[in-house]
Write a structure and sequence with these properties.
By secondary structure, the protein is of the alpha/beta class. About 35% of the residues lie in helices and about 25% in strands. It contains ten helices and 13 strands. The strands form three sheets. It has a six-stranded parallel beta sheet with strand order 5-4-1-8-9-10, with helices on both faces. Helix 5 links the parallel strand 9 and strand 10. Helix 1 crosses helix 8, helix 6 crosses helix 7 and helix 8 packs antiparallel against helix 9.
């Protein structure tokens, strides 16, 4: 039977502007504007669904036109919403401006819907039935803590941003794995060196830590293993969603019982697919990747 994974986190509409050439700040730049379903939690859920897992997304939905589109997209991508409450608010929106080279220049996230969430609005008592659970720090701290106490299988967390990373500090002893980027790891540990930050996260309670450091690669620590894997990307198409795909890959490794090094290699491989795709989730991701 398929392994069941529940993702608790954000779902939103992504609006991305990409100039045709180098970005000229303070001016109107010719380019393309795309509107696509997104959110850290949703991206992680889609990656896991594409890998062949049975996935539920426990995330608040608004009551506007964006919410209708988001529901339709989840149905198309194999993401269940049986535990996703509808709230009388506008949907979350992520607005991103690219720099002309495929990397993010600046972004604004309107996550008021997630911030309004209270513990009683999510069916957290459903979590023990899942083979693994992924948390993203878009949800308020009390909700994340209440969820962590319910989980029976592996628990994996993504800090989302340096500003929201501190919400995960009380959860570190619950975590089988955490996947921050360099900035998020520094906020959590005070260590700017990614290798030292990964080791610090394990000393602080996490069983395994994977710190993504962009072109410098993936640093990992835990289970008596530590190391760094170089970046596998030859050509960068779009950096959006790469961290989310790495978190999904780490969740897959934890649920399937893989060791540190195999999980880290898999995370780098899946992130590379995303970085070379124009989408936040690579359409090349299929269940075959788990066997490969």
């Amino acid at each position: 039977m398929k392994k069941r994974i529940c993702v608790l986190g954000g779902i939103n509409m992504d609006i991305t502007g990409a100039p045709h050439g180098p970005l000229c700040p303070g001016d109107s730049n010719p380019g393309t504007v795309r509107m696509t379903p997104g959110g850290v939690g949703r991206n992680i859920a889609e990656n896991l669904a594409r890998m062949g897992f049975d996935v539920e997304l426990m995330s608040p939905l608004g009551n506007d036109g964006f919410a209708t589109l988001l529901r339709q997209s989840c149905a198309q991508d194999g993401i269940g919403l049986a535990f996703a409450p509808s709230l009388p608010m506008a949907s979350s929106v992520y607005l991103c401006l690219m720099d002309g080279r495929g990397d993010m220049y600046a972004a604004v996230n309107d996550m008021a819907l997630c911030e309004s969430l209270s513990v009683g609005q999510l069916p957290l008592d459903a979590l023990p039935a899942f083979d693994g659970v992924v948390l993203d720090a878009n949800l308020p701290g009390p909700v994340l803590e209440a969820a962590a106490r319910q989980v029976k299988g592996p628990l994996i967390a993504d800090p989302v941003s340096a500003q929201k990373a501190e919400r995960l500090l009380p959860l570190l002893p619950y975590l089988d794995a955490i996947k921050p980027n360099r900035m998020e790891a520094a906020r959590l540990t005070g260590e700017n060196d990614p290798a030292k930050a990964a080791a610090a996260l394990c000393r602080m309670g996490a069983q395994r830590a994977f710190v993504s450091a962009g072109p410098a690669g993936m640093y990992y620590c835990g289970q008596g293993q530590a190391g760094v894997l170089p970046s596998r990307v030859l050509t960068l198409c779009n950096a959006t969603g790469a961290g989310d795909s790495a978190t999904a890959a780490i969740a897959a490794g934890c649920v399937l019982g893989w060791d540190m090094e195999k999980t880290a290699h898999f995370a780098c491989r899946v992130a590379a697919l995303t970085l070379q795709s124009p989408r936040a989730v690579s359409p090349q991701l299929t269940p075959n990747i788990l066997q490969d």
